[in-house]
Amino acid sequence: MSERPVGRESEPGPSGRGSGRQHVDSPSGPAEGRERGATSSVAVVTGANSGIGRATAIHLAAQGYDVYGTVRDRTRATKLAAMSAERDVEVKLVELDVADDGSVRRGFDEILGHTEGRVDVLVNNAGVAGNGTVEDTEPDHYLDAMNVNLCGPVRCCQAVLPRMRERGSGAIVNVSSVTGRVAALAQSPYVTSKWALEGLSEGLAQEVAPFGIRVVIVEPGITRSAIFAKSVDAPDRTGAYGDHYRRMFQMYAAGIAHATDPFEVAEVIHHAVTTDDPQLRYHVSWGGEELIGGRKRITDAEWVSLGAAPDDDAYYTRFQEIFGLDIRPAG
Ligand SMILES: NC(=O)c1ccc[n+]([C@@H]2O[C@H](COP(=O)([O-])OP(=O)(O)OC[C@H]3O[C@@H](n4cnc5c(N)ncnc54)[C@H](OP(=O)(O)O)[C@@H]3O)[C@@H](O)[C@H]2O)c1
């Protein structure tokens, strides 16, 4: 199996490199030249209708996995169907809303019924964005983001862990974000949900290590997807944080212009679940390495003072000094 050591954590963190050598069954081989579905390892990818989830479902299918892609509405999965057909792979669709207990139960009953209870790889990818400062954002907005980005993975993990433990193998990939490590400006509900997912994942990795189950946290930077268009923004109620919103949107504008192809994230996920030298964390995509590395190098006081930059030019200059990224508006 070809492996590309992409997006790996540059330094071992407290729970990083080499923390586990859990066994993950490899798929029975590439899709070409064998009977698909007969002996394949089973992968479930949530939020497979677009972006990173769609790319991951297709990429894993192309690597020989029997892939179940969860979507909220199968009638909207036309692009997934077209892209799968183009690559001559099959992604089996299951309707599932990760924010709903009953829907997750029904979806996994369906999957486990087809696979005799077997799921080798669970990719908790489904997620929503959410912008807003703390003062501008209603608590319900936080709860909505948490319900999808944190409780969604909890529900899906609980559906697969009993059988993974019995078999003594399996891998769970939690798609976090660079904002799970760096509290990006004016995105409080999203940042908070991803930091929570990071904590959950670190704890889970220890909890399931004795059972031979691998946990991986993938932290993408800016990746081409539909998430930015769908982001729910808190209203700028106070009018006090206009500088923050403008600078945050400008960082995304700069990043989106160079956004990484979601298939690169899919490759990292495949590498992470198949390598014999697994890490807990992988970062990938535009800005991932720079933002996480830059935050590690500066003090907390320096981080806080970036927020107090007196004007946009001072902000962009300091941002570039810390992270090595030029996010100034073009022209
Ligand atoms: N794109 C980036 O730059 C970036 C960076 C860092 C992290 N991420 C993370 O990557 C993951 C995938 O995001 P993406 O960028 O690929 O965005 P995307 O294209 O919007 O994909 C998100 C997927 O999650 C699904 N989803 C949302 N709420 C759901 C729910 N309640 N139940 C089930 N599915 C739900 C969406 O389904 P519908 O199609 O039905 O809406 C969609 O298929 C997310 O966890 C995101 O936080 C993305």
Describe the structure in your own words:
Helix content is 44%, strand content 12%. The longest helix has 21 residues, at 188-208. It contains twelve helices and nine strands. It has a single domain, classed as NAD(P)-binding Rossmann-like Domain (Rossmann fold). The chain has a seven-stranded parallel β-sheet with strand order 3-2-1-4-6-7-9, sandwiched between helices. It has a two-stranded parallel ribbon with strand order 5-8. Helix 3 packs parallel to helix 5. The model is unreliable at 1-38 (pLDDT under 50). The chain has helices spanning 51-62, 78-86, 101-114, 139-149, 151-167, 188-208, 227-230, 242-256, 262-274, 288-297, 300-307, 312-323, and strands at residues 42-45, 66-71, 91-95, 121-124, 130-131, 170-175, 213-220, 232-233, 281-284. With 331 residues, it is an alpha/beta fold. The radius of gyration is 20 Å and the shape is globular. NADP nicotinamide-adenine-dinucleotide phosphate binds at residues 46-47, 49-53, 72, 97-99, 125-128, 148, 175, 177, 220, 222-223, 225-227, 230. NADP nicotinamide-adenine-dinucleotide phosphate is lined by residues 46-47, 49-53, 72, 97-99, 125-128, 148, 175, 177, 220, 222-223, 225-227, 230.
CATH topology: Rossmann fold
User: Secondary-structure element sequence?
Assistant: EHEHEHEEHHEHEHEHHEHHH
Tell me the distance between the termini.
46 Å
Rounded to the nearest angstrom, the radius of gyration is 20 Å
Short summary:
The chain is built from 12 helices and 9 strands.
List keywords for this structure.
331 residues, alpha/beta, Rossmann fold, seven-stranded parallel sheet, two-stranded parallel sheet, 9 strands, 44% helix, 12% strand, globular, binds NADP nicotinamide-adenine-dinucleotide phosphate
